[in-house]
Design a protein that fits this description.
Layout: H1 2-51, E1 64-66, E2 71-72, E3 81-87, H2 94-107, H3 111-114, E4 117-123, H4 131-141, E5 148-153, H5 155-165, E6 169-171, E7 177-179, E8 183-186, E9 192-196, H6 204-214
Parallel strand pairs: 3-4, 4-5
Antiparallel strand pairs: 1-2, 1-5, 3-8, 6-7, 8-9
């Protein structure tokens, strides 16, 4: 008899234990949803705010040195419609193709439209792209130095501009740079009007946005 009572007591104790564990788990789940989850979201938002675009500063004022040795910035060319890209002079493939696309795009504009547009090509490898090398690259490509800016920011400026334009890049061990190739269209007051990652071809939607901006629309 005693043995049966003990077993019944042990069974009830076990049931109570599992019931208590279930209650604690339910309370923990509620706390995760109502307290911990929102707290974690807010912590993440604060981290994003502190490391994201707020820390980019005014990227349009980041200085860069042109192939002619002049220091300027994106903001300094306000009043013009601009197409921005990032490249480097010893790029083995994608950069020459992107510049050829830009030249086709430029030549497809009317003379009146062309006078409203400048093209800015910024180096992703300022360590190797000296002013002299930029000048050689520009001249070899046959671009118009009156309307094209080929330039090198500082290392920090390159990071800041690449982040602002959405260009991911990393230096490789063989002195090449693995990077995205993009075109970014800026209006006369510096607002971003269009962006294209198809830099091998004449993107119709990007080109239409460029024409509209050059026409003052």
């Amino acid at each position: 008899m005693k043995r049966n009572v003990v077993r019944a007591f042990d069974s009830q104790s076990g049931d109570h234990f599992f019931l208590l564990a279930a209650v604690i788990a339910a309370i923990a789940a509620v706390l995760m949803v109502t307290v911990w989850g929102p707290l974690q979201v807010r912590v993440f938002e604060r981290a994003t705010e502190s490391s994201g675009p707020a820390n980019l500063g005014d990227w349009k004022r980041v200085p860069f040195v042109t192939a002619d040795g002049n220091t300027t910035s994106v903001a300094a060319s306000n009043g013009q419609v601009r197409v921005l890209t990032m490249m480097y002079t010893h790029c083995p493939g994608v950069c020459p193709l992107a510049l050829s696309t830009l030249q086709r795009m430029d030549s497809s504009l009317t003379p009146v439209q062309r006078r409203q547009v400048s093209i800015v090509a910024l180096s992703l490898d300022p360590e190797h792209d000296s002013v002299g090398r930029l000048r050689e690259f520009r001249d070899a490509r046959g671009v118009d130095p009156r309307r094209w800016i080929v330039a090198r920011p500082s290392n920090e400026g390159t990071r800041q501009l690449a982040a602002a334009l959405g260009v991911s890049y990393r230096a490789m061990g063989d002195d090449t740079v693995d990077h995205q190739s993009v075109f970014v269209l800026l209006g006369k007051s510096g607002q971003v009007l269009a962006r294209s990652s198809d830099t091998r071809n004449l993107d119709p939607s990007f080109f239409s946005a460029l024409q509209a901006a050059a026409n003052g629309n």
